[in-house]
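Example S7 (structure tokens).
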């Protein structure tokens, strides 16, 4: 078996002043093992989503999912988040307290697709729903919309089973357009966005949400014509 070389860690957030180099090396190896565990859980959920997308296409002659991306939190970000939350830098603390080490973003065509995908996933009997936050029914004050789920999925290894949390963000193309730009604007520009700009961004989110609903209505109208013409 080829052993992967442990990648260098860019920033240790002051850990190097608290721990010996042997201790840091051992933490790094354990964190890479943990990343493998979360990567496996992400693959399981991604496969489930691909199967649901294929089946939907078979039944409804279109895919509900436009694209899907997964990411595993980098070791630097895990360290940073544990540090920020005043938690111990350990595998146990990360596993117990962070539910977003593994993340999947699912971008759908229509709003209804989001709920259909979420329901189909939640109803699978090896999936456990830990948290559901509906930022579509109750958008964030800045206008952010998405359906967030934290699910737990079992991962089977040669000698054990681990139940692993995965954070899933499900949104439409339009919601993704807004969230991507808003994220970029927030991180690439000033620390504090002026109030007038926040208001404008929030207004853009409202317009986008209105358009999302309209596009869905148009789709439903056309589907009705399509069904009528089949008769
Ligand atoms: P943290 O993960 O510590 O931020 O807290 P949380 O898990 O309670 O936050 P939440 O579920 O609200 O958000 C988790 C993720 O959703 C973030 O890491 C972002 O990817 C996304 N998100 C949440 N709010 C916003 C927002 O206002 N704008 C954008 N662009 N993305 C957001
Ligand atoms: Mg989070």
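Recovered sequence:
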């Amino acid at each position: 078996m080829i052993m992967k070389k442990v990648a260098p860690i860019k920033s240790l957030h002051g850990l190097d002043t608290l721990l010996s180099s042997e201790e840091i090396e051992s933490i790094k190896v354990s964190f890479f093992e943990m990343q493998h565990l979360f990567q496996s859980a992400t693959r399981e959920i991604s496969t489930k989503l691909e199967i649901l997308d294929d089946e939907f296409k078979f039944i409804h002659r279109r895919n509900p999912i436009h694209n899907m991306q997964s990411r595993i939190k980098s070791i630097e970000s895990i360290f940073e988040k544990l540090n920020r939350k005043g938690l111990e830098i350990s595998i146990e603390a990360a596993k117990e307290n962070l539910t977003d080490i593994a993340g999947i973003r699912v971008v759908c065509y229509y709003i209804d697709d989001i709920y259909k995908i979420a329901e189909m996933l939640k109803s699978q009997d090896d999936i456990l729903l830990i948290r559901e936050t509906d930022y579509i029914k109750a958008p964030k004050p800045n206008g952010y919309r998405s359906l967030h789920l934290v699910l737990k999925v079992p991962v089977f290894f040669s000698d054990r089973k681990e139940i692993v949390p995965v954070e899933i963000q499900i949104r439409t193309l339009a919601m993704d357009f807004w969230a991507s730009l808003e994220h970029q604007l927030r991180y690439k520009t000033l620390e504090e966005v002026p109030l007038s700009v926040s208001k404008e961004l929030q207004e853009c989110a409202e317009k986008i949400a209105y358009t999302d609903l309209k596009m869905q209505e148009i789709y439903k109208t056309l589907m009705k014509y399509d069904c009528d013409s089949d008769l």
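Notes on this example. Residues 100 surround magnesium ion (ligand 2) (CB under 6 Å).
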